[in-house]
Specification:
Layout: E1 36-40, E2 47-51, H1 55-58, E3 63-68, E4 70-72, E5 76-80, E6 86-91, E7 104-113, E8 122-124, E9 129-136, E10 141-148, H2 153-160, H3 175-180, E11 188-191, H4 203-211, E12 215-221, E13 244-248, H5 250-261, E14 265-269, H6 271-279, E15 281-282, E16 285-286, E17 289-293, E18 308-312, H7 319-328, H8 330-342, E19 353-356
Parallel strand pairs: 1-19, 3-12, 3-14, 4-11, 14-18
Antiparallel strand pairs: 1-2, 5-6, 6-7, 7-10, 8-9, 9-10, 12-13, 13-17, 15-16, 18-19
C-alpha cells in the first residue's frame, strides 16, 4: 500500500497521508487524561487502543519517563501601523528584562501584515506597548524592538500577548488556552509552542505512575518555530533544523544514566525530549549540557538512548513525522496513522496520542 523510493533517494513525499479536516482537534478535551491513546508495538506493528488515563497499565518500574518542562510564553502580539493596517507578530525569543532597562527588548519575530514591513516602521501594540521594525528578512523574519511606556515589559506582555496556538487551530486563543496549552510540568519559560505529548498528564496519572515505581525526569527544550518549519527540499536529508535552546542538568543526566545501567527503558515524552537525549549521548552516556540543539532525526538515525515514545500525531511531510518514522519504521507509522484516521482519532496539538513500545 505504501510505496517507498528511499533506495533511490530519500523523499519527503513518501511521508504523506490524507487527513480529513474534521479530525484536526480545535479544542482541548474537558479532561487532559481522557485523550485516546493508540498503542503501537514497533517490532511487530501490532496496534491496540487505550486511553491516556490508563498509561500506568502499560508501564512498570522498569520504565523511566523523560519530560520536557518548558513553558510557553504569550508570544503572539496584535497591533496596528500608524496607517491603521493590522500587524500580527510572533516573538521568537522570550522578552526577558533587559538588564537595567526592563521596559525595552530587542529580538526576532515572525510578522504578518497586508503590506511588507519596512525598517523604521512603528507598530502600536496597545496603550502600554510600542514596537519598531529594526530589520527585515526576505524569508519573513524581522528584527523588532519593543518598549513599554509604563510598567516592566514582562508584565505588559503577560496581559496583551496571546498564547501562540498553531495555525491549524482555526480560532483565536482564549482564556482556557492560558492553562490548557501548558503541561503540568511547565516551569522553565521560553517556548513558542507546547511540547504537546506532555499535555495529557494529570496529577492523578503521575500519582499512579509513582505508585508503580515509574521515575519521572525533566529536561528543557524551548520549542521554537524551527520544529514546525516545512521541509522544502524533496531530499529531506538536506533539511536543516533551526537550533533551539536546551538544558539537561547533571542531576537529570545522572538519573538517566543510572536507569540505563540498571537495564530500564527510557520513555521519552514528546519528540523534543527525544532530540535532547539523542543529541547529548556521548562516550556511551547521556551528558549534561546547556546550549542549542539542532539535531534533525530522520530515518537512518540509530537511537542510542530512547526505547519508547509518547507522542501526538504529526503533520504530513513534517520533521516530526520523520522522527517517529525513524523510531518505528515508515510503513509501521503510516499504517498506524491510517488506523487512527479510520477510528476517528483527534489529531495534532489538542488531539489524541500514541504510545510507541
Amino acid at each position: 500500500m505504501y510505496m517507498c523510493n528511499e533506495e533511490m533517494m530519500p523523499s519527503i513525499k513518501d511521508y504523506d497521508y490524507r487527513l480529513p479536516a474534521d479530525l484536526i482537534a480545535q479544542e482541548p478535551l474537558p479532561e487532559r487524561d481522557q485523550a485516546r491513546m493508540l498503542v503501537l508495538e514497533r517490532s511487530t506493528g501490532a496496534i491496540g487502543h487505550s486511553r491516556f488515563a490508563h498509561l500506568p497499565q502499560w508501564l512498570s518500574r522498569q520504565d523511566v519517563l523523560v519530560v520536557n518542562n518548558t513553558r510557553v510564553f504569550p508570544a503572539r502580539l496584535r497591533g496596528r501601523k500608524p496607517t491603521g493596517g493590522r500587524v500580527e507578530a510572533l516573538l521568537l525569543q522570550l522578552p526577558a528584562a533587559n538588564g537595567s532597562h526592563p521596559r525595552t527588548w530587542s529580538g526576532r519575530a515572525l510578522c504578518r501584515a497586508a503590506k511588507p514591513l519596512k525598517i523604521g516602521q512603528r507598530i502600536d501594540f496597545g496603550a502600554e506597548l510600542q514596537g519598531e521594525i529594526t530589520a527585515v528578512d526576505p524569508a519573513g523574519e524581522i528584527g523588532l524592538q519593543l518598549e513599554s511606556t509604563g510598567r516592566d515589559l514582562a508584565q505588559v506582555l503577560a496581559e496583551v500577548g496571546d498564547m501562540p496556538l498553531p495555525p491549524y487551530i482555526r480560532r483565536p486563543a482564549g482564556k482556557n488556552d492560558v492553562q490548557r496549552y501548558q503541561t503540568i510540568f511547565a516551569n522553565a519559560t521560553g517556548a513558542v509552542a507546547a511540547p504537546t505529548a506532555g499535555l495529557h498528564f494529570t496529577p492523578a496519572v503521575l500519582r499512579e505512575l509513582a505508585d508503580k515505581g515509574v521515575e519521572v525526569i525533566s529536561l528543557t527544550l524551548h520549542v521554537g518555530p524551527g520544529t514546525f518549519q516545512p521541509v522544502r527540499t524533496e531530499d529531506y536529508t538536506r533539511h536543516r533544523l533551526a537550533p533551539e535552546y536546551f538544558s539537561l542538568t547533571p542531576e537529570s543526566a545522572s538519573a538517566i544514566n543510572r536507569a540505563r545501567a540498571a537495564g530500564k527503558k527510557i520513555v521519552a515524552v514528546g519528540t523534543t525530549s527525544v532530540r535532547v537525549l539523542e543529541a547529548q549521548y556521548h562516550n556511551r552516556e547521556v551528558q549534561p549540557g546547556e546550549g542549542y540543539c539542532g539535531l534533525f532525526i530522520h530515518p537512518g538515525h540509530r537511537f542510542r538512548v530512547v526505547d519508547r515514545l509518547i507522542t501526538n500525531f504529526h503533520l504530513p511531510q513534517s520533521t516530526l513525522l520523520l522522527l517517529v518514522s525513524a523510531l518505528a519504521g515508515r510503513e509501521v507509522i503510516l499504517r498506524a496513522y491510517q488506523t487512527a484516521i479510520e477510528a476517528g482519532y483527534r489529531f495534532y496539538s489538542y488531539g489524541d496520542c500514541m504510545l510507541i513500545l
